[in-house]
Structures are given as C-alpha cells and as structure tokens.
Protein: ABC transporter ATP-binding protein
Organism: Amycolatopsis dendrobii
Amino acid sequence: MTSTAVETGAGISDEVPAPAVPLAARTRGLRKVYRSTVAVDHVDLDVPEGAVLGMLGPNGSGKTTTIRMLLGLVRPTAGEVELLGRKMPEESAHALPDVGALVEGPGFHPFLSGRDNLLRFAAAEPRLASQAIPGAVDAALDRVGLSAAARRRYKGYSLGMKQRLGLASALLVPRRMVVLDEPTNGLDPAGTREIRRIIADLHADGVTVVVSSHLLAEVEATCTHVAVLQAGTVVAQGELADLLESGNAALLVRTPDAEQAVETLRENRIGVRLTPDGVRADLTATPAPRVLQVLVQAGVEVHEATRARTGLEDLFARLTEGESAAGDESEGEAS
Ligand SMILES: Nc1ncnc2c1ncn2[C@@H]1O[C@H](COP(=O)(O)OP(=O)(O)OP(=O)(O)O)[C@@H](O)[C@H]1O
C-alpha cells in the first residue's frame, strides 16, 4: 500500500522524492485565474498509474478546470502538468491519443444516429485505420450497452444514452488513461451502475481512470484513490482506504446491555457514546482487545464488535466545513 500523498508545494524537479508508484499524471503548483475568479490554486495532484482516482468536490470547487488543464484544453495561469510523462499542453499531440476523455457533451450531431456520430468521431482518431473503423464503433457501442439503439437518432436519446455515447466516443481505441467529468450526472440508478461497471472493467484492464464527482457515495463505490477539492485547492489526496481510516478510530459494539457497557467503559476511562448503531468506543488511547476485555469481564454480553469506519462522508464534511454553511448550492446538480 502506498502512503497518502503529501502536499509538497514543490515544482517538478529532482528534489521531489520519486513516488513508489509511477504516475500517469501529475500537476505541481497548478493555478487558473479567470478575470477575478481564482478557479484553481496550488494544486499538486498525483494520479498513480492504474488507479481509479476520484476527484471529489462541491460545485465550483475546480474539478472541471483541473481536468481541462490535465487534458491541455485550458492553459494554466501558473504551474505544470504532466500527462503520461508528457508536458501539457505543449506535448498534447503525443499524450492525447492514449487518453479517452468525456468532458462536457462532445459535439454530437442531433439528426445523425448514435452509430453515425461515432463513425465521424472514429474517422478523426489517428490510431484507427479506415477499415478498422466500423468494428471499433460497434465494439464501443456494445461496451456501453447502446448496440440496440445504435441506429436511432441522437436527438431522441435519453440523457443517460447521450452520456453513454460520449463514453463510447472516448473508448473507440484502447487507452492508457480515461478521464471522465461527472459521468453519472443525470443518470438513473441503472445508468449509474452501467458506468460503474465500465469503470471497473477499465480498471481491471490496467487503464488509469480519473473521474470527477460531487457525490461521495459514487467515489466511495468506484475509486481506489481520491483527491478532495475545496475552493480550488486539493485539501486531501491519497488512497481511499487510507483516507477513510484517517479519522478517529472507534469500535462499534452491539450489545443488549448498552447502558451497562457505557457505564463500564466510562469507569475504565475509555471514551464512549451511545449511537443508534450501538456503543461506540474510542480507540485513540485504547486498543480494541482491551475494550472487549473490559466489557466481557464486567459481564456485558457482546453480540458483535466492528471497527467503525470514518466514512468518506464524515471526512468530506470535515474538510469542506463552512462551505455548506455559506450556501446550499452544492445540493443541486453539477453544471
Ligand atoms: N470559463 C470560465 N470563465 C470564468 N469563470 C470560470 C470559467 N470556468 C470556471 N469558472 C469558475 O471557476 C470556478 C471553478 O469552476 P469549475 O467548473 O472548475 O468547478 P467544478 O468543481 O467543476 O464545479 P461543477 O461541479 O459545478 O462543474 C467556479 O467559480 C467557476 O465559476
């Protein structure tokens, strides 16, 4: 397991120790200013090769702008971007053929069928020979579950189908990396599951995936790594499992003798509180076996004891504290 990445604030130089895992993308000191708006600032992002990295943040936190700079679609005001070892945006032509991207709706023609739209996209793929185009298009349609609707006009597609066609356009040729900006936005649960399956398949194939979302459950369900953005800066990043464990450790005990358990633990100076899920004992100063020993010795019947997870939700709430107090915009759909 690699360690949680630290914010170094350093530029891309020999002074930065080599990471344990090679990086598919990294940024240093990334900044983007639009007139008076600082959209992104001091972003040092590490995307390990083979990771599914969730870029998590409320609306307006800078996810799309960061993704656009990763892909060389927007020129940074300051800082550096490396994508698959190439300097962006200068070396876009070398890096981008290996990268599939779904960033905002690609320019699909409303009166053409999904398949005909993809044929047009495929014709612009430098890595696809013309005789390979029909096969690649049909395989991509199949991969996103659109084969049956392939000959219907794009205009009549549901939002989920449009989203899946966008994904198919990103997957026309095998990629080393796939970047998806809010891919499940507006999808129903079945559509969301489908996108998750596609991400899992890409991961199994060793493809690096960067996916942005303002939905915590989404990131928790699909990602190996996470970078949390708040007001344009990365406030935490690393392996999902490490970030989930970074809160106060606690043991959740299910017992019919809850009140006795609370009393006993307090008498033994072990932090404890009663929650709807059970008795929650603080493990900051006491190891779990000691908590169980104290309870059992006092005659408390223990039915189940599990390590309570901090949950990305708690982490996200702590990291972005104050943000929601400032307004409820983050409740709505992302733009
Ligand atoms: N082209 C632009 N011109 C001016 N301001 C912009 C532009 N693009 C983004 N911004 C501003 O930069 C900030 C970050 O926006 P960005 O779209 O990157 O955030 P986001 O996290 O992707 O949000 P969302 O989930 O709403 O898409 C916002 O304040 C936004 O209004």
User: Anything to note?
Assistant: The CA atoms of residues 27 and 322 lie 27 Å apart. The chain has a mean pLDDT of 85.
